[in-house]
């Protein structure tokens, strides 16, 4: 476990009682729904090296480990207490995964030697300051192999009054300054700024705490020019919010 890579700012910790973390996420975010959609979008293959940055208690890593494919799995999280819980969960389910202590901005240093083909992060970006969002996405881009993919599930643009009102609960817990850029729909632009191409919002899932969006982007293949202009495909499913 790497303990040396730390930014000046501390992270937003999980709930004080760790045993309550998983039930709270499950109850208030429709976890099963968005995790299943994220897994389908990720489409893991046996040849993949997949990193979960901000892996939390390892729920998505466990899902990946039992997906029927056998990719190499890596988890990163800055909270050592959470990592211990993830380690126990993965061991109990028989999923092999290496875990590292680190922040979003540490992704390049921790992952580049491992050559990840796909990186996933969920419910992390909304919790950190704008500068950390940018630094984290840049580090993830640097860590991926050419042609590698980033997949995100997080609170995104809150399109309706109902979703904006529900998202207030998240903002009261995680802070308005850090969460408001997500609610304003900044994530796709930040992905483009970090160098990702083919940036796309693929789903909008209403929950009891606001809408969670799924995004994906790709690091350009080595043959592509750095001067290429990133594209953002607004392929959203706004109708999903009508169900809220």
Folded structure, characterized:
It is built from nine helices and eight strands. Helix 7 packs antiparallel against helix 8. The longest helix has 14 residues. The N terminus and C terminus are likely disordered. It has an eight-stranded mixed β-sheet, sandwiched between helices. By secondary structure, it is α/β, with parallel strands linked by helices.
Structural class: alpha/beta
Distance between the termini: 41 Å
Number of strands: 8
Q: For the largest beta sheet, what order do the strands appear in spatially?
A: 3-2-1-4-5-7-6-8
Summarize the structure.
With about 240 residues, this protein is α/β, with parallel strands linked by helices.
Q: SSE layout and pairings?
A:
Elements lengths: L20 H9 L1 H12 L6 E5 L5 H7 L6 E6 L2 H14 L4 E4 L5 H5 L6 E5 L7 H14 L5 E7 L5 H14 L1 H8 L3 H7 L3 E11 L2 E9 L13 E2 L11
Parallel strand pairs: 1-2, 1-4, 2-3, 4-5, 6-8
Antiparallel strand pairs: 5-7, 6-7
Helix pairs in contact: 7-8
């Amino acid at each position: 476990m790497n303990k040396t890579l730390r930014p000046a700012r501390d992270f937003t910790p999980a709930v004080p009682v760790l045993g309550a973390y998983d039930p709270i996420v499950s109850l208030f975010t429709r976890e099963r729904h968005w995790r299943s959609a994220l897994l389908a979008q990720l489409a893991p293959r046996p040849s993949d090296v997949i990193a979960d940055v901000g892996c939390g208690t390892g729920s998505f890593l466990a899902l990946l480990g039992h997906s029927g494919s056998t990719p190499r799995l890596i988890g990163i999280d800055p909270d050592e207490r959470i990592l211990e819980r993830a380690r126990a969960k993965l061991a109990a389910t028989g999923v092999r995964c290496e875990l590292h202590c680190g922040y979003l901005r540490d992704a390049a240093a921790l992952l580049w030697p491992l050559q990840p083909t796909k990186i996933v992060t969920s419910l992390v970006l909304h919790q950190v300051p704008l500068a950390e969002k940018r630094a984290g996405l840049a580090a993830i881009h640097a860590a991926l192999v050419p042609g590698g993919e980033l997949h995100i599930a997080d609170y995104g643009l809150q399109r309706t009054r109902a979703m904006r009102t529900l998202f207030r609960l998240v903002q009261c817990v995680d802070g308005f300054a850090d969460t408001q850029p997500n609610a304003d729909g900044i994530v796709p632009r930040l992905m483009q700024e970090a160098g990702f191409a083919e940036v796309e919002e693929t789903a909008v899932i209403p929950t009891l705490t606001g809408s969670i969006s799924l995004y994906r982007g790709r690091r350009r293949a080595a043959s592509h020019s750095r001067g290429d202009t990133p594209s953002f495909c607004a392929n959203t499913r706004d109708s999903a919010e009508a169900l809220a």
